[in-house]
Structures are given as C-alpha cells and as structure tokens.
Amino acid sequence: MRARLVVFPVKGRNWCFSRSVDTSSSAAADSASAHTPSGLRELCTKISNNSDPKQSNAELLIDFVSNKMNRAWMGLEKAPEGTFKNKIHGLGLRLLARVKPSEMFLKSITKEVSSVEITYPPSLNARLVRRRLRHVAKRGTIIHRKYFYGSVSLLPLTTAFTVLPLPNIPFFWILFRTYSHWRALQGSEKLLELVSDSSAANVNEGEHEHDKLKDAIPDRFVSSTWVLQPSEQLEGLIQHDDGDDGLSKSTISTICKTFNLNAIDALKYRNSM
C-alpha cells in the first residue's frame, strides 16, 4: 500500500509532516479491527492456535488492548454533557492536545505501507526534503524507544491507584502512552526503511533540480519505495500567505482540506520546536 506524505514549511525552520487520509487505509484498519479478538477467551484461543513467531502474538495482544481502549474512548465521547464520563473525556482531549504532531505522523506509518509518495512545494530542495524525512524517522526511533521503555516501567506504579473508588486514570493514560510510543517506534522504523539510501528513487519529471536527482540514481533501481512529487498547487497556497510569521491558520486549514490532512496536528507544527 502506498501512503501519501505531504511536507511543507509552516514557520521558519518548522516544517509540517503529515499523511493524507486515505479511505482505503481506513477500510483496511476497520477490517483489521474486525478480526481483533473481542474477549479474553477468544484472545487466548488465537494465541494458543497461532503458529507464527512471538512477535505476531505480541502484536495480537497490543491490537486487542488498543481495540479495548478505542471502544472505551468512544463510550466517553458519547457521554451526556456534564456527566463524570464527559469530564474525563474533556481531560483526555486536553492531554491529547499536548502530544507532539511528529508522534501522530509517525503513528500513521503502519506496517501495511510498502511505499510513500512525498508531496512538497517545488521551492524546496528535493534532497533536503528526503533528508529531513529521514531525520524525523531516525530521531523517532531513538525518542520513542526511550519513552516506550519509560512508560512500561511506570505501569506497575500506576496500578496502586486501583485501591481508590475512582477510575484509574493515571494507569489508562500511561497504558495509552505506552501503546502510542510503541506505534510511533514501529512507524519510525518503517519510514526509515522506506526512505533509506538503499531505496530506489522516482522523481517526477519537469523540474531541473529533480531531473538532476533522477539522473544521479543508477538504472538498476527500477522499483521505488519512495516517490518525490513536487506540487505547484501546494506551492501556490504557500506563496499566497508567505510572511515573517509563517503560514496563517486559515492557510494551513486550506492546505489540510486540499490534501486531506489532519488540521489539528498540522496546526501544532507552527509552535513546535
């Protein structure tokens, strides 16, 4: 499956890295969720009957926990206004707002992705775009591995809050962060694999800089895991709002609507470091 990645500068050295929402990938995710065990008995049965390596069983367990968390979150979202569950949902939204957009981007690179199409404004250097994508992926493998192990170590401590007559919010939050960092780590490793130097290059013809990059690639690379795709439409949207303060919120929202991006995550890049 090919994923479309959109890259553009938002403010100074801050660039936005986001994946376009694909209906086919959403359908695939729904299909995978449908095959995830709904109960502990079904989970134990699948694990015992699974002939795959331990990695497959670990992913099955993580998908099971993720499915349970998603269902619980949907229940909180549908809670009536003013109820305790509704207040917990509001707290969750405030906590999620603090999650860095790069983490959300890396989590979107799933194991089903076999190649990426990188859309960017032609005013950016093609080599720099790929270099920065590799930097994001490589940095993600370091950061999210460290935070994953840190979150795992905190899980036993948060279980102490189960003695209180209230929902163990710290435990579920740390559990979610553990899952989120694990997914971001997997996405980082996958993205680094796709845009590594060993991959072949496909560069859209037309721009002189892109032609030079294409000519520099040996002919033996005939199948590519990444494609550089300059977009004049994206360039026009950026140039329309080019200023010292970076892109405005309205322009970023327009870009997100045009290229099917998550506007909430894209807007976070304006203030990220």
From TrEMBL:
<dbReference type="GO" id="GO:0006813">
    <property type="term" value="P:potassium ion transport"/>
</dbReference>
<protein>
    <submittedName>
        <fullName>Uncharacterized protein C23H3.12c isoform X1</fullName>
    </submittedName>
</protein>
<keyword id="KW-0812">Transmembrane</keyword>
<dbReference type="GO" id="GO:1902600">
    <property type="term" value="P:proton transmembrane transport"/>
</dbReference>
<feature type="transmembrane region" description="Helical">
    <location>
        <begin position="147"/>
        <end position="176"/>
    </location>
</feature>
<dbReference type="GO" id="GO:0005743">
    <property type="term" value="C:mitochondrial inner membrane"/>
</dbReference>
<keyword id="KW-1133">Transmembrane helix</keyword>
<dbReference type="Pfam" id="PF10173">
    <property type="entry name" value="Mit_KHE1"/>
</dbReference>
<keyword id="KW-0472">Membrane</keyword>
<dbReference type="InterPro" id="IPR018786">
    <property type="entry name" value="Mit_KHE1"/>
</dbReference>
